[in-house]
Protein 1
Amino acid sequence: MRLPPGQTLVQDWPVLSAGPTPQIDTADWELTLQDETGADHRWSWDELLALGVEDVTVDIHCVTHWSRLGMSWRGVSLDKVFENVESEHEYVMAHSYGGYTTNLPLEDLLDGKAWIATEADGGPLHPEHGGPARLLVPHLYFWKSAKWLHGLTMMPDNEPGFWEQYGYHIYGDPWKEERYW
Amino acid sequence: MSAPPVTPALRLRPRSAWHVATVVETRRETPTAARLVLDVPTWPGADAGSHLDLRLTAPDGYQASRSYSIASSTPHGQVVLAVDELPDGEVSPFLVREVRAGDQLELHGPLGAFFVWRPGESARPVQLVAGGSGVVPLYAMAAAHGVAADTTRFQLLYSVRTAADTFFADELAALTGPAFGLDVVYTREAPDGWPDAVGRLTRETLAARTVPAVQRPRVYVCGSTGFVEAVARWLQELGHAADDIHTERFGGI
């Protein structure tokens, strides 16, 4: 059983976003990671890719009731991104170009469960699907896989991000149908 | 763990919950769409622009859910939906062709506190841009604006295939007046004597028929992904700030 409750299988890839699609050139792209020490960890596009890009095949589940199974992605494991980061904080706020945010427990990003995706369906990630780079956290509803990823900030508490403030669930497990609070 | 920051959205949003709806009336909205009037005694009301999840359960227990924009609703009263039938759809053909007065449906909502308009929130003008059935949440905003007798300038640019495909045609016409302007672009066929060119919405038409960026309108765009992508890009090229452009898309399932 690979389809969570209340989901419908699709073959195409629907788009959901709250505003215009940001157009970001990889030459201008940057990822920052902020921890409580104030130390900034930064990666340019080439520096991110140099951490090691891997092939990932996963199912994705959107809160608006569609799922895609066995989708092929390429991206950098967040284990690599967090390798040299030391933080006592257990939560992360992901920030997007364009201002969107979403909150996640750190443990949901580690141990091979999450990636910064740069390719999907055999090609570069299209801007409307979050390119050049987005989070890929396939075990949670897909709004948690923030598009147009720009930054990660460590947080001591699980503060709600953009959609979570507008009524989406604080965690978002598709198998428990944690869609809304 | 500290409490999450309380935002206005958290305080004002009607709590979403499951509701049992009884179909009061169904009627043709367009050649491919139906209007459903539902009686929902437990409905808390909804901000204009919000949506709901509708769940069908088959006799064998199989369930299918879809999201639909709310055309209008009143607390403890009626919820009106307009559902376009999708080819190969699983839920929409049932809602458009099979549902009858007296049938019961399960709803979860209201949902969405971002793509909404509330009266009195801002004095800035509002520009709505609709593609096809994407007009439903924008009609909800225009109707709420009318009911509130809000004097904020509202304008709707509606791109639709033909006159017969127009959702809420009579209601939109009735809303037009000093505070609400309606512009229609027919993409396939216009009524006899229509003065404007027939064809897909262009950047030039968008520029000519919408509130200019210098007036800082709040802009709401709803339609297919292709429509929303094009319109949002043109709006930015015409000087509108990304933060002023709210988008919602339909399609996919």
Protein 2
Amino acid sequence: MRVVVMGCGRVGARVASNLAHNGHDVAVVDTDPRAFRRLPPEFPGDTIIGTGIDEDVLRSAGIDSATVFIAVTNGDNRNIMAAQVARMIFEVPEVICRIYDPVREDTYRRLGLTTVCPTTTVSAMILDHVIGATPRRGLED
Amino acid sequence: MYNIVVGGGKVGYYLTKQLLEEGHEVLLIERNPEKASSVADTFGAVVLTGDGAEAVTLAAAGAARADVVIAVTGEDEDNLVVCQTARQKFHVGKTIARVNNPKNEQLFRMLGVDVTVSQTNHILHLIEQSIPDRPFLHLLSLRHADLAMVEARITDESVVAHKAIGEIDLPVDCVIAAISRGNHVTVPSPATELLPGDDVIAVTRVDQEDELRRLLCTDC
């Protein structure tokens, strides 16, 4: 399975190396070549310097044959735009997009993107630890 | 008419100025507080500091009653999200985005932005038009109609020189709209003869542009 990961930060590098380790064909895109140092030295996939909102960059990352596209740069808007390019132009079957802003996440989930919002997820986990000892009813209200 | 402009750079600044001078109601949203306050010093209380891609900011700006939202930041991804948020969450009737990478124009329209403005393309066209002795120029595209306006210079060698327009076998959906001869611009009739030195302005379907170019610019 061909997977294109945009953004080689902590999350991007981890996801990319994990997928590659599991035998998938992975390409990582980042504007900063230094970001690729986060990948393990034995990383077998491709690294492409450029911005994932540029169709030509995505093409050179092999998006034409990709089954999955993952947008995990630090910029919500960049992730949103790249995810829509992957879905609308390249018709990638599975597109996953990280959005920090919960309101924006909600908007684009409604528009059909598969979204991950660290803000709500991490908050929920922390709250779970804090309020976990008390009856769970309190959380679900 | 209530306009929300997002991005207080040069484009946003002059756009706000122009819209205010025309008597429109304008609110400029700028993320950088220093930039925002310097614009506010000039125009008064028409500036909101905040991220225009955030729904909270657009809500505070009264996007729900805005007629137009215009995103003119230097980042295409920000302009796209501003327009999409305005449309999806606030049902703004018209969204306009500045496109920095000309390749994104088509994508933005596919993604629901009503109007895209690519200054890069505009500058390229302007420069192209001021280069002398270009035999065939693309003047403008009428996007919604899939039409283009072009200008061609007729020379002594042109196949169509000294021919009446009615005798020329123009491509389908293509019309010679005006002829600039010396200091005069005239609207031609089928009997009008094309002369060397004429600048012919034609309207054509975009996919016929190359054929028209061959016809008007081929030497005999």
